[in-house]
């Protein structure tokens, strides 16, 4: 007789507490036998630490739950926490100043110099810390879906959470590819639980995120925020693709038409609708964040997506909501302790709650994430809270370069304490925190490719209309979707256009399904004097922001901006 509290028919060896662990040790140690010499030479104490290379998701779940306080959510995703840092630390990012890359880097507040000796000290500090851990996780994967341009990336870390994150964000190798992986092209040493020594030369705090292009290595100290690894890989691709391969790396989403096979690139900062608008039932998603425009087409850099979760719902973002399942990681998300149901509206830990999941979890993902066809359209998204930019404008090549370099959107009142009116945000190339080369270099490559392949470029404003924030209203999503559909169908390219003054933009005079007064902001505003005032104000802000780049760009690009 089996009593209710007994477990019947248990295979005896499962009851042995060390059964799974001993198998894991044997399995994953053997996998890296060919690399033992590498790890020994790098300074790892192979007699002390247990290395788990490309460990299965289930094992990483177990370790994260056992050792890191992670829990499994009601949908099967792993919920874990990054500690004190819940976002990137841009002020602590450093690039090593060395002979092979110093003439290419755009030095300044984004790319702060670090000397080679300090990097060596921090690298040694990271490895010393990893040597104190019982488990060290290694993930070998690829960045870039096109085999001609991809790089091999090795991540070495001490948290199962970080290993699972990069398992999701890099392109996962097959068993055969892993067996023949060889020497990596880029290595990340993530010792984020251990602080940097702030008395070391060049350190400004106990956090340090640094890249050495000569050694092709990255060291992370003092932050456990997983997004640092993702953006570290992007920074390396943002350097290598233009410099080594002559291809253009982009901070953009991309999709491809299921019927016509036409490719569209979407640029846009946070809150502009990039993720929402690139998710389209008539089109397959190539990727949501990082791409390369090569001589043969467009490919995704990543193997997964890192989506914001704030106020997430199945109604608003069904694709993302459905992707939060077994294998995904929810980062810094509050949950109901009784039901384990995530509360996406709770921002008590951070507003920057995230989910990392493999791109295959998106139903209409283009797998493999590469299309051997040149883009037909580029859409630059902005959320103009001043309410003066048109919902859609057709840009000339020079205007496309100008707006790509400007990278404009606006913060709205209520997003931060003390914000009482719209604040303009200019992020060059729509990726200022990750820029490695001079912005003009990326802009020139973009213009060259647009001209060569006859690509149409559109500036789409998803912000306010009929007045600025507080008096106007947000452009309804249904109209923005209609505009994007008209871009893809070719309908908008055939429309009649009129000039929109001050910014000298070409705006369509009509588009079926979109009210006439919406297409031209001067018609949508009841107070014409107030409209002109806000228009001139925004134009002046553009001019001031663009002054940083105007000495390094062609005169035609300088003249493509607003007339003040």
TrEMBL record:
Q: Name one GO molecular function term.
A: phosphoenolpyruvate carboxykinase (ATP) activity
GO cellular component: a single term: cytosol
Q: Name one Pfam family in it.
A: PEPCK_ATP
Query: Which reaction does this enzyme catalyse, per its entry?
Result: oxaloacetate + ATP = phosphoenolpyruvate + ADP + CO2
Keywords in alphabetical order: ATP-binding, Decarboxylase, Gluconeogenesis, Lyase, Nucleotide-binding
InterPro entries, per this entry? Answer: PEP_carboxykinase_ATP, PEP_carboxykinase_C, PEP_carboxykinase_N, PEPCK_ATP_CS
Q: Could you tell me the superkingdom of the organism this chain comes from?
A: Eukaryota
Cited SUPFAM superfamilies: PEP carboxykinase N-terminal domain, PEP carboxykinase-like
Q: Do the record's keywords include Disulfide bond? A: no
Q: In which pathway does it act?
A: Carbohydrate biosynthesis; gluconeogenesis
Biological-process GO terms, alphabetical: gluconeogenesis
According to its UniProt record, which protein family does this protein belong to? Belongs to the phosphoenolpyruvate carboxykinase (ATP) family.
Query: Which PANTHER family does UniProt cross-reference here?
Result: PHOSPHOENOLPYRUVATE CARBOXYKINASE (ATP) (PTHR30031:SF0), PHOSPHOENOLPYRUVATE CARBOXYKINASE ATP (PTHR30031)
Report what the protein is called: Phosphoenolpyruvate carboxykinase (ATP)
Tell me what organism the protein belongs to: Hypholoma sublateritium (strain FD-334 SS-4)
């Amino acid at each position: 007789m089996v009593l209710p509290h007994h477990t019947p028919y248990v295979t005896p060896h499962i009851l042995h507490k060390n059964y799974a662990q001993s198998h894991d040790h044997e399995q994953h140690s053997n996998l890296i036998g060919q690399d033992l010499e590498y790890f020994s030479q790098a300074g790892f104490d192979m007699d002390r630490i247990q290395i788990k290379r490309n460990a299965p998701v289930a094992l990483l779940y177990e370790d994260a739950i056992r050792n890191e306080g992670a829990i499994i959510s009601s949908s099967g995703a792993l919920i874990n926490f990054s500690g004190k840092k819940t976002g990137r630390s841009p002020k602590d990012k450093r690039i090593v100043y060395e002979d092979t890359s110093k003439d290419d880097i755009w030095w300044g507040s984004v790319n702060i110099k670090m000397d080679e000796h300090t990097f060596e000290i921090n690298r040694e500090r990271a490895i010393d810390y990893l040597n104190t851990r019982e488990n060290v996780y290694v993930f070998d994967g690829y960045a870039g879906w096109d085999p001609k341009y991809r790089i091999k990336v090795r991540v070495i870390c001490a948290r199962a959470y970080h290993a699972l994150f990069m398992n999701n964000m890099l392109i996962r190798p097959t068993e055969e590819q892993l067996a023949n992986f060889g020497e990596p092209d880029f290595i990340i040493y993530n010792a984020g639980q251990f602080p940097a020594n702030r008395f070391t030369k060049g350190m400004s705090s106990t956090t340090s995120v640094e890249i050495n292009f000569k050694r092709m290595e990255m060291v992370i100290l003092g932050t456990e925020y997983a997004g640092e690894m993702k953006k570290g890989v992007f920074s390396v691709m943002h350097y290598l693709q233009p410099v080594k391969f002559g291809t253009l790396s982009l901070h953009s989403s991309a999709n491809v038409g299921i019927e016509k096979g036409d490719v569209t690139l979407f640029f846009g900062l946070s809150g502009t609708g990039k993720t929402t608008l690139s998710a389209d039932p008539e089109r397959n998603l190539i990727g949501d964040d990082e791409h390369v425009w090569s001589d043969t087409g467009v490919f995704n850099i990543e193997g997964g997506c890192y989506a914001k979760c704030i106020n997430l719902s199945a109604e608003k973002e069904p694709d993302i909501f459905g992707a939060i399942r077994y294998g995904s990681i929810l980062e810094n998300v509050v949950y109901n302790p009784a039901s384990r149901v995530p509360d996406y509206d709770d921002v008590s830990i951070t507003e920057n709650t995230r989910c990392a999941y493999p791109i295959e979890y998106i139903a209409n993902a283009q797998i493999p994430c590469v299309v051997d066809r040149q883009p037909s359209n580029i859409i630059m998204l902005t959320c103009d809270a001043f309410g003066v930019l048109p919902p859609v404008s057709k840009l000339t090549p020079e205007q496309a370069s100008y707006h790509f370099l400007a990278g404009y959107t606006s913060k709205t009142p209520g997003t931060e304490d003390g914000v009482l009116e719209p604040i303009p945000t200019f992020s060059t190339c729509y990726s200022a925190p990750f820029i490695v080369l001079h912005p003009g270099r990326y802009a020139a490559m973009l213009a060259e490719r647009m001209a060569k392949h006859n690509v149409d470029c559109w500036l789409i404003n998803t912000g306010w209309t009929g007045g600025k924030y507080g008096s106007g209203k947000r452009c309804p999503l249904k109209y923005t979707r209609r505009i994007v559909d008209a871009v893809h169908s070719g309908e908008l390219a055939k429309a009649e256009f009129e000039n929109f003054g001050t910014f000298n933009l070409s705006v369509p005079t009509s588009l079926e399904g979109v009210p006439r007064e919406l297409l031209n902001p001067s018609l949508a505003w009841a107070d014409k004097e107030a409209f002109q005032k806000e228009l001139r104000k925004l134009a002046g802000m553009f001019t001031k922001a663009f002054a940083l780049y105007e000495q390094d760009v062609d005169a035609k690009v300088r003249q493509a901006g607003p007339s003040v």
